[in-house]
Amino acid sequence: MTSDVRERPRDEVPYTLDEPAPKVLGFWDQGAFWANLGVSLFAFSGAYTVLAPDADGRPTMSIVAGIVAMAAGTVIGGLMLGLAAAPGARTGQPAMVLLRGLFGARLSYVPTVLNIAQLVGWGTFELIVIADAARALWDGVPRWSYVIAAGLVTTVLTVWPLGSVRLLRRYVTVAVLVALVYFYVQLLREPLPDLTDGSWGGFWLGADAALAVSISWVPVAADYTRHARSARGAFGAAAVGYSVTQIVAYVLGLLALAIVAGDSTRVFDPFLHVTLGVVLFAVFVVREADQSFANVYSTAVSIQNLVPRADRRVLSVALGAGVTVLALLLDIGDYSGFLSLIGSVFVPMLGVLAADFFLGRGRLPKWDSSRTAPSRWGMIAAWAVGIVAYQLVNPGAVGWWTRFWTGVRDALLFTPQSWMSASVLSFAVAAAAALLIGRVGGTGGTGGVAKITR
Questions:
Q1: pLDDT tens sequence across 347-394
Q2: How far apart are CA 441 and CA 438, in angstroms?
Q3: CATH number of the CATH domain containing 261
Q4: Are 303 and 206 in contact (CB under 8 A)?
Q5: Within a domain: 347
Q6: Any long-range contacts for 411-417 (C-beta under 8 Å, 24+ apart)?
Q7: 20 to 30 A Cα–Cα from 302, which one of 42, 107, 112, 322?
Q8: Coiled-coil regions in this chain (predicted)?
Q9: Is residue 360 a part of any domain in this protein?
Q10: Closest Cα to residue 342, out of 410, 287, 295?
């Protein structure tokens, strides 16, 4: 272990959980990192989701309504992301290890396994997106070569994560900003249809679609903010940095969608057909590797919660190779509904964490993230209540799961209203349940005798 410590740069992530996390990321390092994650090719290709498409995929809202809904969802999601970021900075622990203090060491394995499953899926999805976008730029080479190239870049970034974050701040962020400004100027010069044509009927469905993208980073936020110099800086960098660029990227995607008359399969065309469009769109394609990097790195760190002494470098290389193989073999579109379903369970989990960390046990002198942290079934119960609230409002699109919750909803005579946001409602319900259980059961619903003193 001693030789490993000497070999590792002091300002890089430890190889195992036995070493403390260096506090080396300032506000601008983190802000640039989250800002880059906010600009994704999915913000262009998936922009139609904030227009509340019907069963046939046709948008039901106007572009203006979609922009407002997206902005509302992104701001709420950004604040939630900030709430997930701050505990990592305060405790110095990665996300899944942090959950030992919330659920107990052994019970933290439940969200850890779910997180690993979704991160492997999203890492695979990102490699497919990069390869498809690269072929849209130039299809002169086989698709598999783009997948392998993206997998190699992802793996290299993952082995040196903090160095990669600083690299993003110094170089990539500037290139992305230049590309965004250029495309705004070019697309706004194009003839646009009436952006108010349509309804506002699916406002909260659209807001939830944007919020869900922000929330997808909640289970990994602390993996990076544990290296932040302050909790306040971690909150601000995540909430502001991510929200601003996601709004900018989605508006650009919606403008492109308007230009192609709502045809989501052609949403990249307006970018590629303008002067220098291919060159500057290549910036987005290459930069997309930071999305796959974040997913693969956080998968390795999540596995360390199960196997604390596993070397993250070995895990990173193995996972990088694994998601590359999956991207070569799978059609991730068949998995997207399942990924969204897994992601939905982390919204109420954040509600439980925020309530307990900021208003409950987290106010005690020490947050117990040790390997012997006692099980807290009360917090699991609060999480479960929040999951139920989410599924009753939005049961997703996975056949058997959707049918089950639709049946439950019918049995309860419950009809979701248009003003209901599954994410906001489940967050609030889970947080309220956590506070109630914490006060009834002692230090956070463990059944212990000690009471939290204020």
A1: 999 999 999 999 998 887 789 999 999 999 999 999 999 999 999 998
A2: 5
A3: 1.10.4160.10
A4: no
A5: no
A6: 416/392
A7: 42
A8: none
A9: no
A10: 295
Task: Classify residue 34: in a domain, yes or no.
Answer: yes
Residue 441 phi/psi, 5° resolution? -100, 5
What does the angle CA 235 – CA 295 – CA 20 come to, to the nearest 5 degrees?
A: 60
Q: With a cut of 70, say whether residue 448 has pLDDT above it.
A: no
Contact yes or no for 52/205 (Cβ under 8 A): yes
Place of tokens 């705004």: 184
CB atoms within 10 A of CB 288: 24
Please give the tally of structural domains in the chain: 1
Decide if 234 is inside a domain.
yes
Most trustworthy range by pLDDT among 49-53, 94-98, 258-262: 94-98
Amino acid at 233: G
Cα–Cα dist 126/118, whole Å: 12
User: What's residue 7's pLDDT?
Assistant: 60
In Å, how far are 185, 244, 327, 328, 397 from 331, measured between CA atoms?
35, 31, 8, 9, 17
- Residue type at position 122: W
Q: 131 with 143: CB under 8 angstroms?
A: yes
> What are the structure tokens assigned to 129, written together?
């997106």
- The residues near 167 (Cβ < 8 Å, ≥ 6 apart) are none
Residue the block writes with tokens 């390997």: 371
If one counts every other C-beta atom within 10 angstroms of the C-beta of residue 437, the result is 25
Residues paired with 204 in a beta bridge? none
Kindly report the average pLDDT of the chain as a whole number. 88
**Residues 264, 37: Cα–Cα separation, whole Å:** 22
With CA atoms as reference, report the closest residue to 67 among 230, 271, 210, 237: 210
**What DSSP state is assigned to residue 333?**
G
Which residues, at least 6 apart from 362, have a Cβ–Cβ distance to it below 8 Å? 87, 101, 356
pLDDT digits (tens, 9 = 90+) for 68-84: 999 999 999 999 999 99
Please state, in angstroms and rounded to a whole number, the distance separating the CA atoms of residues 195 and 256: 12
Task: Tell me the chain's radius of gyration from C-alpha atoms.
Answer: 22
Q: By CB neighbour count within 10 A (0-12 exposed, 13-18 middle, 19+ buried), where does 22 fall?
A: middle
Least confident of 22-31, 57-66, 183-192, 235-244: 57-66
Range of the domain at 10: 2-334
